[in-house]
Amino acid sequence: IVYGPLSVGATSVLYEGAPDTPSWSRWWQIVERYRVTILYTSPTAIRTLLRQGDEWPQRHDLSSLRLLGSVGEPINPAAWEWYYRIIGKGRCPIVDTWWQTETGAIMISPMPGATPLKPGSATLPLPGVVADVVDQDGQPVPPGQEGFLVIRKPWPSMLRTIWGDPERYRQQYWERIPGVYFTGDAARRDEDGYFWILGRVDDVINVSGHRLSTMELESALVKHPLVAEAAVVGRPDELTGQAICAFVSLKGSGPWDYDQLAAELRDWVAREIGKFARPAEIRFVEALPKTRSGKIMRRLLREIVTAREVTGDVTTLEDFGVIQRLIR
Length: 328
Known about the structure:
Elements: H1 3-7, H2 26-34, E1 38-41, H3 43-51, H4 55-58, E2 67-70, H5 77-87, E3 94-96, E4 131-134, E5 147-151, H6 166-173, E6 181-189, E7 195-200, E8 204-207, E9 210-213, H7 214-222, E10 227-237, E11 241-250, H8 258-272, E12 281-284, H9 298-307, H10 320-327
Parallel strand pairs: 1-2, 2-3, 11-12
Antiparallel strand pairs: 4-5, 5-6, 6-7, 8-9, 10-11
């Protein structure tokens, strides 16, 4: 993101502060003033901007944009559609990229203007990348079925070891499913071979034997017209093994009947996915805990619903006040 563009002579625009300071026009003012051509950001940032309404970007000339990018976590179709329609005006391809720090390069991504797009899908592996979706035994799963995302053959920028801990390197990346690189992500492929990244393997909730991706649940919630953002985690449950707990922030300022709205959202998810996916608990929040780069920190939410405290690493947390308000 820093060295790559600079190494090929691209101009990168840097700014200090937050996207809402002095107003939610901050990014769009920068695009208009400096004629920015490529915008590459996280789905969480996109959902945050979506929550503020269309009027902020519509005040500015965004015609210089020619390519939009998404990175860091799966993007839900509703956020994808807003990004494409409002920011790209229906003319900018969205490059939804899957990669890791460990891979050293983008691995799964549409080729701008060449790959037909599907909202929410990272589409296809780039040339030379041999990706697959497999079960615990390393066997490919049928189209539409969830499995583990793996890379079957080496690539030039792959990590070679973990500094000072080669045994951890072998165990974490190569021994979970022998013979392939284990990414730690869950995914599925559709009938066209497109990859749909579902999030980290530990972001899968098992409710009465039903394996549910947090991304799938969150996508269902943000389809509701009143929901701006959602984060879903599992908490222990004696009857079902795990129960679904959803943290939801709403569009606008209300007033809301939270009990009625919670019941409505539970029914909404049940209709979108199935009765087995109905959240056991919905918590309405002003904001979700995020890293400085905009990723939702679900592991902190898991700590809150299981232990009512946070003891893990919070050095990358953007605003600790969000956690304090959630614990109260």
